């Protein structure tokens, strides 16, 4: 994954050899934001070693230093001195959380040789090869790309591909030269070339934008010069999201619907979806009617470890035995609504969902092993403050939230929310048998967790240590309040509390 | 907040039903899963629904059945592995009985390896599928409960239930079979490397503990040690066998092959991790322990290879020894001995030549002449032999020893050793240069000339007594210069330039002075002629004077002129021109003294005989003698008369009379009575009837002017001279040192002096002591009263 070139750059940075760094980056711009085997990015190393001039160079070339990424965080915290730190902060070190980073990285990794931060997406799998070969005018190597990306982002390619029909392999001879084509592809795949689109290739960016039908490229090039690097970057990523949202809305969000039992065949898909060359079909059963929905999708965008493994399993162990069945069908045990939310998120990184579905989404994300979506779902749940959680108007209660948190391992995020929520509505909660049972269950869980605690505390994983206080405080707060004001709690509860070691 | 909400009672909804609330019995779910796992093991996975199996495991984990699921899976895998061991591996266990043939053993071993390989590959494949299906268990349950993953456990289970099966020790069998096959390969059989390799990969993929530490691979902990022990035994034996039956060439070839073979084995059959270890074993047994003995083998060892220019063998040998000893001490030691031995053989030629010559030594001039000529030829041959040896060794050094610096030093030491053992080497080497400059270099290109000179320099470098060489070289050089024998001044200068580079300016300053004299003399002659022309004097004089004015300190005077002073009464016409030049010269250089050296000069004279005129080139003395007969009144002169008229020293006179009157081709005088020897009573007269085929010819002196080796007498003189000059040098060095240091212990002083002078010669300690004593006597130094071992400088 890591090229030797990157190691050379990193060594030059270690040695403080600014000239070598500069020369290297002229030829290998893509190393600017790459990470090495220690997860160091160039700016992390430069700030750690205290090379002010190199850091300045890197930042001026467009090295990213966003606080929400591991690398960005690390750079600031490991800065050798205040001077370095201030430089980082001055250089458009975006204070706002940039949660677009993993999405952009995923997309870039589809094209770039260096898979950037695989760890950020939580997915480790080989980079899928593209399904479309682009042949620039002036010869040279064919460029491998993905039909769905081309169609999503460029009107020119959309027309080209849709008119060329569904051949086995797309081969697109195009009249542009290789340099221009690469510039455009880099833009489409969100590969941050740092120096922008302006001065590459033979055509200027406006010509390229018109030619390839990329209105957003035009916009990004014309954007007012005052905009800073990070903002510009954000705009570029947002443009991509919009393009993929359109792709989702217009193509992929429409499933093929078949009555249960009827076998699926690729030929049933409409030709415009086929032109996207889907390599996976996700099969979902409706709970209400007997229909089965088939969603066309692309492995490249799928960020679920379950689905990826299922595909691999079928390919390795089953397809070879049963003969080719293409594309691979994976059936998923969620409702079509949730499936659509997840798929849309795969393609656009956007989640828009009614609060009622948030808990289902969390469970689905857990089952499908999509860590990042779990956090998003938790965020959705914990940002609501509605009595509906108590009455069950949403279809689930606060106790369901706590229990799901427990089941899915997201309790460090959900428990504080539950505790706060319950504490603010204690009066209403403490009626009825249901409540007592729920509390009992809660306490049972707490106890189990605390029993497990020593092991955590001695382990060296920092996140465990982090969440211990978080978890203790709201819990004890809840229970303490509970104990003082309401004597109706059973003595058994008291005993449990004593056992738990709380100050009664 | 309570008041706001308290007004209306809110009905709290009970938790909804969902996946988390679905009831599920462990046994049902496990039945489904275990059925599927069995199918996987039966290689019948194509109909399984991955999604369903995954979901089942997922639900079991949610339902807190993680622990039993984990255990059940492990039990299932374990049972499966045990069954595989009993049904597949046990029947394939190899037969180690000694009675079976190699072929039989190899076949049964192969079958066993194949079975192990098969079971391992099956296990890996199935375990991969199981891991996929149980991914949620791995990710959530194992992670939360700090249990080793299914994959890691599966590997450990294979280790414990197959390789370390309680009933059948498959692991030990495996080691044994692999080792046996490797032994067969070492003995020349062909084995199935790929199959062994896959078993080795297996051992590399398994660890002693669940931590899977790199140094805890079963390959390292179980297999490698046994392999190394077996190899150790094999190579101890191998070394002994090879020594018994092989000559050196075969031995090193086989050793080289073995090393390559073992390297290849680590690349193709076992793990590369073992490479350095097995290499060191082979190196120890085949090289370190035995190579010395091999090199010393009489008929084929190092000496044989050097003598017969076995470049390839020496190269292999060198590379082998270098593996274990970077400075190849053993080779260097033997090579040095050999070179010194060969050098002494060359020296022996010199000694054996000189011995029979000694009894014949005497005043008998002719015999001496002959032996001198022969010895000169021998001296040249000695140098050429040494150079040939040097060439030979250099070629070996270059081709076989990869121009190893250490070996070069050793070779230099060896050459220096035997060259200095021959006391006459400085003289011989100087003679060699002389010979080449005079004759040998004619018609050669500059590069070739340079090469020969470089060779001479190489030998010069080895000489310890550089001062002796200097003395000889100056002597030979001066003769070449005065007699005009050098083929080219450039070559002479190039040679001196090389000496300068080697030992510095002080060594060559006098030689350069000699050259300067030659140039100045040329100018002087021209100017003198101009001077004469200006004066318009003696225009009628037919004498052309070509004069060489030599600075006495630069030239090795005594060795050129002998001890006798050279006087001569010049005939009037010569005397006139001589004094005219002397006047001219002394006017220009006031206060200098000119000493005339007629014995060094030559003259071209035109003589008229009956038949015709001839131009004859003769020595100055011979001219003086001939001029005595230039008077028509003189009929004949007796020896004594000539002696009185010319006052030429007797020995010179005899020599020149011999060449003028006795030598058959150039008899311009007639001697009576006619005999070879010249006696004081002999009479000489002009031979008017002389005839010669050439118009121009040369009458040489009987004793040639060429450079020859010294006779023993001369050498004795030279040695005395050398000792004398050394004494001066030593005293100068002592005074210089003591002046700077004021007071110095005896030992330190000796050390200092030796170091300072070693560039020129190796001073003899007793000589230094003598000089110190002498200096004390002359009150340059004194012994410190308190410590007689310390000298003090007296200002």
TrEMBL record, chain A:
- CC terms in the record's Gene Ontology section: cytoplasm; ubiquitin ligase complex
| Domain BTB as annotated: residue spans | 130-189, 278-355
Q: Which UniProt keywords apply?
A: ANK repeat, Repeat
> Which InterPro entries does the UniProt record give?
ABTB1, Ankyrin_rpt-contain_sf, BTB/POZ_dom, SKP1/BTB/POZ_sf
Name it.
BTB domain-containing protein
Species of provenance: Arthrobotrys flagrans
UniProtKB/TrEMBL annotation, chain B:
What organism is the protein native to?
A: Arthrobotrys flagrans (Nematode-trapping fungus)
Q: What is this protein called?
A: Cullin family profile domain-containing protein
Assigned protein family? Belongs to the cullin family.
In the record, biological process GO terms are:
ubiquitin-dependent protein catabolic process
Q: Where is the signal peptide?
A: none
- The residue ranges of the Cullin family profile domain are 424-661
Q: Which GO terms describe its cellular component?
A: cullin-RING ubiquitin ligase complex
InterPro entries xrefs: Cullin, Cullin-like_AB, Cullin_CS, Cullin_homology, Cullin_homology_sf, Cullin_N, Cullin_neddylation_domain, Cullin_repeat-like_dom_sf
